[in-house]
Protein backbone atom coordinates (compact mmCIF):
# COMPACT_ATOMS: atom_id res chain seq x y z
CA UNK A 1 0.00 0.00 0.00
CA UNK A 2 1.25 3.48 -0.79
CA UNK A 3 2.16 5.68 2.14
CA UNK A 4 -0.52 8.22 2.66
CA UNK A 5 1.01 11.64 2.83
CA UNK A 6 -1.80 13.87 4.05
CA UNK A 7 -2.57 16.97 2.00
CA UNK A 8 -3.33 20.03 4.11
CA UNK A 9 -4.77 23.31 2.81
CA UNK A 10 -2.31 25.81 4.30
CA UNK A 11 -4.38 28.79 3.20
CA UNK A 12 -6.65 28.01 6.15
CA UNK A 13 -3.72 28.74 8.40
CA UNK A 14 -2.52 31.79 6.47
CA UNK A 15 -5.92 33.44 6.14
CA UNK A 16 -8.36 31.45 8.25
CA UNK A 17 -10.19 31.87 11.52
CA UNK A 18 -8.59 30.85 14.81
CA UNK A 19 -10.42 27.54 14.64
CA UNK A 20 -9.25 26.91 11.06
CA UNK A 21 -5.69 27.67 12.07
CA UNK A 22 -5.89 25.15 14.88
CA UNK A 23 -7.35 22.60 12.48
CA UNK A 24 -4.38 23.03 10.11
CA UNK A 25 -1.98 22.77 13.06
CA UNK A 26 -3.62 19.49 14.10
CA UNK A 27 -3.40 18.21 10.53
CA UNK A 28 0.32 18.89 10.26
CA UNK A 29 0.97 17.61 13.78
CA UNK A 30 -0.79 14.31 12.96
CA UNK A 31 1.02 13.93 9.64
CA UNK A 32 4.38 14.54 11.33
CA UNK A 33 3.54 12.00 14.02
CA UNK A 34 2.48 9.36 11.49
CA UNK A 35 4.82 9.77 8.52
CA UNK A 36 7.01 12.82 9.13
CA UNK A 37 5.88 14.25 5.78
CA UNK A 38 2.96 16.46 4.78
CA UNK A 39 1.87 18.02 1.50
CA UNK A 40 0.80 21.66 1.84
CA UNK A 41 -1.32 23.14 -0.91
CA UNK A 42 -2.05 26.86 -1.16
CA UNK A 43 1.19 27.50 0.66
CA UNK A 44 1.54 31.07 -0.59
CA UNK A 45 4.70 30.73 -2.73
CA UNK A 46 3.59 31.80 -6.21
CA UNK A 47 3.46 29.07 -8.86
CA UNK A 48 5.21 31.34 -11.36
CA UNK A 49 8.08 31.87 -8.95
CA UNK A 50 8.58 28.14 -8.42
CA UNK A 51 8.47 27.54 -12.17
CA UNK A 52 11.02 30.25 -12.65
CA UNK A 53 13.28 28.62 -10.09
CA UNK A 54 13.11 25.31 -11.98
CA UNK A 55 13.93 27.21 -15.17
CA UNK A 56 17.04 28.75 -13.53
CA UNK A 57 18.04 25.36 -12.27
CA UNK A 58 17.82 23.84 -15.76
CA UNK A 59 19.74 26.75 -17.16
CA UNK A 60 22.52 26.40 -14.61
CA UNK A 61 22.90 22.64 -14.93
CA UNK A 62 22.98 22.82 -18.74
CA UNK A 63 26.15 24.92 -18.58
CA UNK A 64 29.35 23.07 -19.45
CA UNK A 65 30.92 21.26 -16.51
CA UNK A 66 33.97 23.53 -16.59
CA UNK A 67 31.68 26.57 -16.26
CA UNK A 68 29.73 25.05 -13.39
CA UNK A 69 33.02 24.37 -11.70
CA UNK A 70 33.73 28.09 -11.56
CA UNK A 71 31.64 28.06 -8.36
CA UNK A 72 32.92 24.86 -6.77
CA UNK A 73 31.72 23.40 -3.48
CA UNK A 74 34.73 23.62 -1.14
CA UNK A 75 36.24 20.34 0.01
CA UNK A 76 34.94 19.08 3.35
CA UNK A 77 31.44 19.33 4.75
CA UNK A 78 31.50 22.52 6.77
CA UNK A 79 31.06 25.06 3.99
CA UNK A 80 28.03 23.76 2.13
CA UNK A 81 27.77 26.12 -0.81
CA UNK A 82 28.36 26.13 -4.55
CA UNK A 83 28.37 23.43 -7.18
CA UNK A 84 28.89 19.71 -6.51
CA UNK A 85 29.39 17.56 -9.60
CA UNK A 86 27.92 14.04 -9.80
CA UNK A 87 29.45 11.74 -7.22
CA UNK A 88 30.95 14.43 -4.98
CA UNK A 89 28.42 14.33 -2.22
CA UNK A 90 27.69 10.92 -0.83
CA UNK A 91 24.76 10.77 1.44
CA UNK A 92 24.92 8.32 4.30
CA UNK A 93 22.58 7.55 7.11
CA UNK A 94 23.59 7.68 10.76
CA UNK A 95 27.09 6.46 10.10
CA UNK A 96 29.89 8.40 11.67
CA UNK A 97 32.77 5.95 11.79
CA UNK A 98 35.23 5.79 8.92
CA UNK A 99 34.60 2.16 8.02
CA UNK A 100 30.83 2.34 7.62
CA UNK A 101 31.04 5.67 5.82
CA UNK A 102 33.41 4.31 3.22
CA UNK A 103 31.21 1.23 2.74
CA UNK A 104 28.09 3.32 2.18
CA UNK A 105 30.03 5.37 -0.32
CA UNK A 106 30.65 2.50 -2.66
CA UNK A 107 27.32 3.35 -4.25
CA UNK A 108 27.67 6.86 -5.62
CA UNK A 109 24.78 9.29 -5.77
CA UNK A 110 24.11 10.17 -9.36
CA UNK A 111 23.19 13.81 -8.95
CA UNK A 112 24.62 17.29 -9.19
CA UNK A 113 23.65 20.17 -6.96
CA UNK A 114 24.07 23.87 -6.37
CA UNK A 115 23.74 25.12 -2.81
CA UNK A 116 23.14 28.67 -1.68
CA UNK A 117 22.18 30.21 1.60
CA UNK A 118 21.31 33.42 3.37
CA UNK A 119 23.47 36.25 1.96
CA UNK A 120 23.97 37.41 5.57
CA UNK A 121 25.43 34.09 6.68
CA UNK A 122 29.02 34.91 7.58
CA UNK A 123 29.96 31.35 8.50
CA UNK A 124 29.02 30.00 5.07
CA UNK A 125 29.31 32.69 2.41
CA UNK A 126 27.63 31.95 -0.89
CA UNK A 127 29.69 30.83 -3.85
CA UNK A 128 28.14 32.28 -7.00
CA UNK A 129 29.12 31.71 -10.60
CA UNK A 130 30.69 34.78 -12.22
CA UNK A 131 27.70 36.99 -13.17
CA UNK A 132 28.47 37.03 -16.90
CA UNK A 133 28.15 33.24 -17.04
CA UNK A 134 24.52 33.26 -15.94
CA UNK A 135 23.27 36.82 -15.43
CA UNK A 136 20.33 37.16 -13.03
CA UNK A 137 20.86 33.75 -11.37
CA UNK A 138 22.12 35.14 -8.09
CA UNK A 139 19.47 37.88 -7.86
CA UNK A 140 16.68 35.42 -8.51
CA UNK A 141 17.88 32.85 -5.98
CA UNK A 142 18.39 35.49 -3.30
CA UNK A 143 14.76 36.58 -3.70
CA UNK A 144 13.48 33.03 -3.85
CA UNK A 145 15.38 32.22 -0.65
CA UNK A 146 13.41 34.90 1.19
CA UNK A 147 10.09 33.52 -0.02
CA UNK A 148 10.92 30.01 1.12
CA UNK A 149 12.23 31.38 4.43
CA UNK A 150 8.89 33.13 5.00
CA UNK A 151 7.05 29.87 4.41
CA UNK A 152 9.31 28.06 6.89
CA UNK A 153 8.50 30.69 9.52
CA UNK A 154 4.77 30.23 8.90
CA UNK A 155 4.99 26.47 9.20
CA UNK A 156 6.93 26.86 12.46
CA UNK A 157 4.30 29.23 13.78
CA UNK A 158 1.71 26.62 12.94
CA UNK A 159 3.70 23.89 14.70
CA UNK A 160 3.96 26.17 17.73
CA UNK A 161 0.19 26.37 17.74
CA UNK A 162 0.01 22.57 17.64
CA UNK A 163 2.18 22.44 20.78
CA UNK A 164 0.47 25.31 22.53
CA UNK A 165 3.60 27.51 22.34
CA UNK A 166 2.59 31.17 22.42
CA UNK A 167 2.81 33.62 19.51
CA UNK A 168 5.67 33.22 17.02
CA UNK A 169 7.33 30.83 19.57
CA UNK A 170 9.12 28.34 17.37
CA UNK A 171 9.57 30.73 14.44
CA UNK A 172 11.61 32.96 16.79
CA UNK A 173 14.25 30.24 17.09
CA UNK A 174 14.81 30.46 13.32
CA UNK A 175 15.04 34.25 13.10
CA UNK A 176 18.58 34.26 11.63
CA UNK A 177 17.22 32.22 8.71
CA UNK A 178 20.46 30.32 8.22
CA UNK A 179 18.75 28.09 5.73
CA UNK A 180 19.99 26.30 2.65
CA UNK A 181 18.48 26.39 -0.81
CA UNK A 182 19.54 23.51 -3.00
CA UNK A 183 19.06 23.05 -6.70
CA UNK A 184 19.24 19.37 -7.54
CA UNK A 185 19.56 17.68 -10.89
CA UNK A 186 19.53 13.94 -11.40
CA UNK A 187 20.80 13.31 -14.94
CA UNK A 188 19.04 10.69 -17.06
CA UNK A 189 20.36 7.26 -16.16
CA UNK A 190 19.94 3.68 -17.37
CA UNK A 191 17.15 2.07 -15.34
CA UNK A 192 19.36 -1.02 -14.94
CA UNK A 193 21.97 0.97 -13.01
CA UNK A 194 19.41 2.15 -10.47
CA UNK A 195 17.51 -1.11 -10.21
CA UNK A 196 20.66 -3.16 -9.89
CA UNK A 197 21.76 -0.91 -7.01
CA UNK A 198 25.05 -0.04 -8.73
CA UNK A 199 24.17 3.60 -8.48
CA UNK A 200 21.51 5.61 -6.73
CA UNK A 201 19.94 9.00 -7.33
CA UNK A 202 20.19 9.83 -3.66
CA UNK A 203 20.88 7.17 -1.08
CA UNK A 204 18.52 6.58 1.83
CA UNK A 205 18.93 9.30 4.45
CA UNK A 206 17.01 11.58 6.75
CA UNK A 207 17.51 15.33 6.68
CA UNK A 208 19.63 16.95 9.42
CA UNK A 209 17.84 20.14 10.22
CA UNK A 210 14.42 21.07 11.55
CA UNK A 211 12.19 21.20 8.46
CA UNK A 212 12.68 20.69 4.73
CA UNK A 213 10.48 22.13 2.01
CA UNK A 214 10.66 20.13 -1.20
CA UNK A 215 9.51 21.25 -4.60
CA UNK A 216 9.85 18.60 -7.29
CA UNK A 217 9.08 18.21 -10.97
CA UNK A 218 6.57 15.68 -12.30
CA UNK A 219 9.06 12.81 -12.87
CA UNK A 220 8.65 11.19 -9.45
CA UNK A 221 10.81 8.59 -7.76
CA UNK A 222 10.95 9.95 -4.21
CA UNK A 223 10.41 7.09 -1.76
CA UNK A 224 9.87 7.10 2.00
CA UNK A 225 10.62 4.30 4.38
CA UNK A 226 7.71 2.39 5.85
CA UNK A 227 7.40 3.30 9.48
CA UNK A 228 6.76 -0.30 10.50
CA UNK A 229 9.18 -2.08 8.17
CA UNK A 230 12.76 -0.93 8.11
CA UNK A 231 14.25 -1.07 4.63
CA UNK A 232 10.86 -1.09 2.86
CA UNK A 233 10.40 2.02 0.74
CA UNK A 234 7.28 3.33 -0.96
CA UNK A 235 6.99 5.95 -3.60
CA UNK A 236 5.52 9.34 -2.85
CA UNK A 237 4.01 10.74 -5.99
CA UNK A 238 4.37 14.44 -6.71
CA UNK A 239 1.21 16.47 -6.07
CA UNK A 240 0.88 19.35 -8.46
CA UNK A 241 1.02 22.75 -6.82
CA UNK A 242 1.79 21.34 -3.37
CA UNK A 243 5.02 21.57 -1.43
CA UNK A 244 6.20 18.55 0.48
CA UNK A 245 7.33 19.40 4.01
CA UNK A 246 9.27 16.94 6.12
CA UNK A 247 10.74 16.74 9.58
CA UNK A 248 14.53 16.64 9.97
CA UNK A 249 16.56 14.91 12.68
CA UNK A 250 17.04 18.03 14.73
CA UNK A 251 13.29 18.61 14.92
CA UNK A 252 12.66 14.94 15.73
CA UNK A 253 15.08 15.22 18.61
CA UNK A 254 13.69 18.57 19.73
CA UNK A 255 10.16 17.16 19.75
CA UNK A 256 11.36 14.19 21.81
CA UNK A 257 10.39 11.99 18.85
CA UNK A 258 6.80 13.19 18.76
CA UNK A 259 7.53 14.05 15.12
CA UNK A 260 9.38 11.60 12.88
CA UNK A 261 12.35 12.28 10.71
CA UNK A 262 11.60 9.67 8.08
CA UNK A 263 14.29 8.08 5.94
CA UNK A 264 13.82 8.73 2.22
CA UNK A 265 15.66 8.25 -1.07
CA UNK A 266 15.12 8.70 -4.80
CA UNK A 267 14.80 5.70 -7.10
CA UNK A 268 13.05 4.59 -10.27
CA UNK A 269 9.63 6.23 -10.65
CA UNK A 270 6.92 3.58 -10.55
CA UNK A 271 4.90 5.31 -13.22
CA UNK A 272 7.62 4.32 -15.69
CA UNK A 273 6.67 0.67 -15.51
CA UNK A 274 9.27 -2.02 -16.05
CA UNK A 275 9.88 -1.43 -19.70
CA UNK A 276 11.56 1.96 -19.90
CA UNK A 277 15.29 1.69 -20.28
CA UNK A 278 16.29 5.19 -19.36
CA UNK A 279 15.02 7.02 -16.30
CA UNK A 280 14.52 10.62 -17.41
CA UNK A 281 16.37 13.51 -15.90
CA UNK A 282 14.75 14.89 -12.74
CA UNK A 283 14.93 18.25 -10.98
CA UNK A 284 14.01 19.03 -7.40
CA UNK A 285 14.49 22.01 -5.12
CA UNK A 286 14.79 21.27 -1.42
CA UNK A 287 15.04 24.09 1.10
CA UNK A 288 16.54 23.06 4.42
CA UNK A 289 15.73 24.95 7.58
CA UNK A 290 17.59 24.83 10.82
CA UNK A 291 17.39 26.67 14.13
CA UNK A 292 19.66 29.61 15.01
CA UNK A 293 23.05 28.19 16.04
CA UNK A 294 22.84 29.00 19.72
CA UNK A 295 19.33 27.56 20.12
CA UNK A 296 19.21 25.08 22.95
CA UNK A 297 17.59 21.91 21.73
CA UNK A 298 15.80 20.26 24.60
CA UNK A 299 12.38 18.64 24.55
CA UNK A 300 9.73 21.15 23.46
CA UNK A 301 6.67 21.90 25.58
CA UNK A 302 3.94 19.35 24.95
CA UNK A 303 6.50 16.71 23.94
CA UNK A 304 7.47 15.34 27.32
CA UNK A 305 6.01 14.61 30.72
CA UNK A 306 5.67 11.89 33.31
CA UNK A 307 4.57 9.29 30.79
CA UNK A 308 7.02 10.53 28.17
CA UNK A 309 10.41 11.26 29.67
CA UNK A 310 13.00 13.33 27.84
CA UNK A 311 15.04 10.98 25.66
CA UNK A 312 17.95 13.15 24.57
CA UNK A 313 20.69 15.22 26.06
CA UNK A 314 20.57 18.92 25.47
CA UNK A 315 22.59 20.09 22.46
CA UNK A 316 22.86 23.34 20.60
CA UNK A 317 21.59 23.47 17.05
CA UNK A 318 25.08 24.36 15.83
CA UNK A 319 26.84 21.46 17.51
CA UNK A 320 24.38 18.97 16.13
CA UNK A 321 24.46 20.11 12.50
CA UNK A 322 28.27 20.26 12.40
CA UNK A 323 28.48 16.66 13.47
CA UNK A 324 26.11 15.55 10.70
CA UNK A 325 27.71 17.66 7.97
CA UNK A 326 31.16 16.28 8.68
CA UNK A 327 29.97 12.82 7.67
CA UNK A 328 28.90 13.99 4.21
CA UNK A 329 32.10 14.89 2.41
CA UNK A 330 35.78 13.98 2.28
O1 LIG B 1 15.20 15.09 -4.81
C1 LIG B 1 14.40 14.78 -3.93
O2 LIG B 1 13.20 14.61 -4.17
C2 LIG B 1 14.85 14.57 -2.52
C3 LIG B 1 16.12 15.27 -2.17
C4 LIG B 1 16.52 15.04 -0.76
O3 LIG B 1 15.98 14.22 -0.08
C5 LIG B 1 17.61 15.85 -0.16
O4 LIG B 1 18.28 16.60 -0.89
O5 LIG B 1 17.79 15.76 1.07
FE1 LIG C 1 16.38 14.55 2.00
Automatic annotation (TrEMBL):
A Gene Ontology BP annotation from the UniProt entry: small molecule biosynthetic process
Gene3D superfamilies: B-lactam Antibiotic, Isopenicillin N Synthase, Chain
One Gene Ontology term of the molecular function aspect: oxidoreductase activity
UniProt-listed InterPro entries: DIOX_N (IPR026992), IPNS-like_FE2OG_OXY (IPR044861), IPNS-like_sf (IPR027443), Oxoglu/Fe-dep_dioxygenase_dom (IPR005123)
Pfam family, one: DIOX_N
Domain Fe2OG dioxygenase intervals: 174-291
Keywords: Iron, Metal-binding, Oxidoreductase
Family: Belongs to the iron/ascorbate-dependent oxidoreductase family.
PANTHER family: FE2OG DIOXYGENASE DOMAIN-CONTAINING PROTEIN, OXIDOREDUCTASE, 2OG-FE II OXYGENASE FAMILY PROTEIN
Protein name per the record: Clavaminate synthase-like protein
Species name: Aaosphaeria arxii CBS 175.79
Amino acid sequence: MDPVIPIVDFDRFLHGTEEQKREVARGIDNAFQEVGFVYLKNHGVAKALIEECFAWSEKFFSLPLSTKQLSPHPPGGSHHRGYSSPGLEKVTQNTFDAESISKAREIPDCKESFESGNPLDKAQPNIWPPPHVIPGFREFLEGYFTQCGDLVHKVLECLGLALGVDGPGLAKTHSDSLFQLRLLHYPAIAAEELKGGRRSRINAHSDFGTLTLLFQDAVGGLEVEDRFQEGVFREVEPVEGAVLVNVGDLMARWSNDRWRSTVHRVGVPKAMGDTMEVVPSRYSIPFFATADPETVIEALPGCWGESRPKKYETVTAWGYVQMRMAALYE
